[in-house]
Amino acid sequence: MIRKIGDITVIGLSEADSNIYVIGNSVIDAGTGFNFTRLMSMFSAMKRDMGSIEWVINTHGHFDHVGGNGYFLNAKVAIHELDAPILERGDPELSFSDFFNGRMHARHVDRKLHDGDEISGLRVVHTPGHSPGSICLYDEKSRVLFSGDTIFAEGIGRTDLPGGSELDLKNSIEKLRGLKIDKLLPGHGNPVLQNVKLVIDSVSDSFY
């Protein structure tokens, strides 16, 4: 599945893979890596060369988001500093790779992100809870939020995996309530293209 939302291309490979967002010469998340041939054919349909991607920005270190990082051969990898060790060690437990019958390989992290950083024209919003280093990426000009596994169209990310915290996720959702968001593009499932505030408020209220 390929879908265009403004200048953003959304790639959906399978239910197991994260959404892959292509924006300029960057991608946000890279899926499991199990569906390389399909991903390559989609880039071909887009008339894009996978080798032209300069940055892979991971919203967190779980295998369904990072397993495909290596397929973007010329790209540098960015992830929040708290999840960076998952990639650097190829950690099977914290990446949750066994759940996907996947295998992690240790990989260099080119940039360790922090709250408030700017990368590829997007602001890093640290939103721990699903994992310690979970982030969202915010385009303030177009009011678009790439929300990773922090929040979806109909719920929130799991907090029962290693490194998860319900309290941290609650605080992260509260943080998102302070942003002006017109479009919410999650790590899985459908985008929210209207009434985003109602979705976030509803999720936030569910904690109480």
Brief write-up:
By secondary structure, the protein is an alpha/beta fold. It has helices at residues 36-45, 63-66, 84-89, 92-95, 166-176, 196-205, and strands at 2-5, 8-11, 20-23, 26-28, 55-57, 76-80, 111-113, 118-119, 122-126, 135-139, 144-148, 151-152, 155-156, 183-186.
State the CATH class.
Answer: Alpha Beta
Strand percentage: 15-25%
Report on the biggest sheet: 7 strands, mixed
The name of the CATH architecture is 4-Layer Sandwich
**Order of helix and strand elements from N to C terminus:** EEEEHEHEHHEEEEEEEHEH
Radius of gyration: 16 Å
- The level of helicity is 10-25%
Give the full name of the CATH homologous superfamily.
Ribonuclease Z/Hydroxyacylglutathione hydrolase-like
DSSP helical segment count? 6
* Order of neighbouring strands in the sheet with most strands: 1-2-3-4-5-6-7
Total strands: the figure is 14
Q: Low-confidence parts lasting 5 or more residues at pLDDT below 50?
A: none
Query: Rough shape?
Result: globular
**Total domains:** 1
What's the CATH topology label? Answer: Metallo-beta-lactamase, Chain A
CA distance, first residue to last residue: 37 Å
Structural class: alpha/beta
The oligomeric state is single chain
Please tell me the overall pLDDT: 95
Overview of the structural elements:
The protein has 208 residues and is an alpha/beta fold. It has one domain (2-205): 4-Layer Sandwich (Metallo-beta-lactamase, Chain A), CATH 3.60.15. 22% of the residues lie in helices and 25% in strands. It has helices at 36-45, 63-66, 84-89, 92-95, 166-176, 196-205, and strands spanning 2-5, 8-11, 20-23, 26-28, 55-57, 76-80, 111-113, 118-119, 122-126, 135-139, 144-148, 151-152, 155-156, 183-186. Strands 1-2-3-4-5-6-7 form a seven-stranded mixed sheet, with no helix packed on it. The longest helix is centred in the C-terminal third of the chain and has 11 residues, at 166-176. It is globular and about 40 Å long. The model has no long low-confidence stretch (mean pLDDT 95).
